[in-house]
Design goal:
The protein is mostly helical and about 170 residues long. It contains 6 helices and no strands.
Length: about 170
């Protein structure tokens, strides 16, 4: 039986897709920053470049997107937050962004590894790692690959374009 791919709101797909592109970049650049400047638990081969600045730039790009995504999740997407994996991924993202905003980039360059925001940021890094894996597994468990592909659809319904996004955010589900 060939059922159509479920339709996801276009604003959700846009915010989710952009976040899904930036979070792995932040995670991977954070892995390099940790390995180059901290390395208490593991070390990768040192990669040239100013990875703290690269990681910070990805965080700066992710910050407004995460705020918009959280606003969407708390309004139009509130029913989706009842799924623990979705809530954990959003909490991990907000903790990573919030703790990253509290950090000072020179801490790691000067070897100051004991600042509370840095430890919180490391915790967020671990939380978001587990939460994204949990989120992906939960999506596949709930709806399989068909459901997962629904987030990558380019089709937009007539009443689901950018003009309808404010109305979607104000609607309670």
């Amino acid at each position: 039986m060939n059922r159509p791919i479920p339709y996801q709101p276009s604003l959700l797909r846009l915010l989710h897709g952009c976040t899904a592109l930036l979070v792995p970049l932040a995670w991977l650049s954070g892995l390099v920053v940790f390995s180059n400047h901290d390395g208490r638990w593991f070390r990768l081969p040192t990669l040239p470049g100013d990875w703290i600045d690269i990681h910070g730039t990805v965080g700066v790009l992710l910050w407004p997107l995460a705020v918009l995504f959280a606003l969407y999740a708390l309004s139009a997407g509130r029913s989706r937050l009842r799924q623990p994996a979705n809530a954990a991924a959003l909490i991990g993202l907000m903790l990573a962004i919030g703790s990253g905003k509290l950090m000072q980039e020179d801490w790691l360059r000067t070897g100051q590894l004991d600042a509370f925001p840095y430890h919180l940021h490391l915790l967020a890094w671990l939380l978001i790692s587990g939460a994204v894996i949990w989120h992906g597994a939960a999506v596949l468990r709930r709806g399989g690959w068909r459901f997962a592909r629904s987030m990558a659809q380019l089709q937009v319904r007539e009443n689901d374009g950018p003009r309808s996004w404010p109305r979607q955010l104000l609607r309670r589900r």
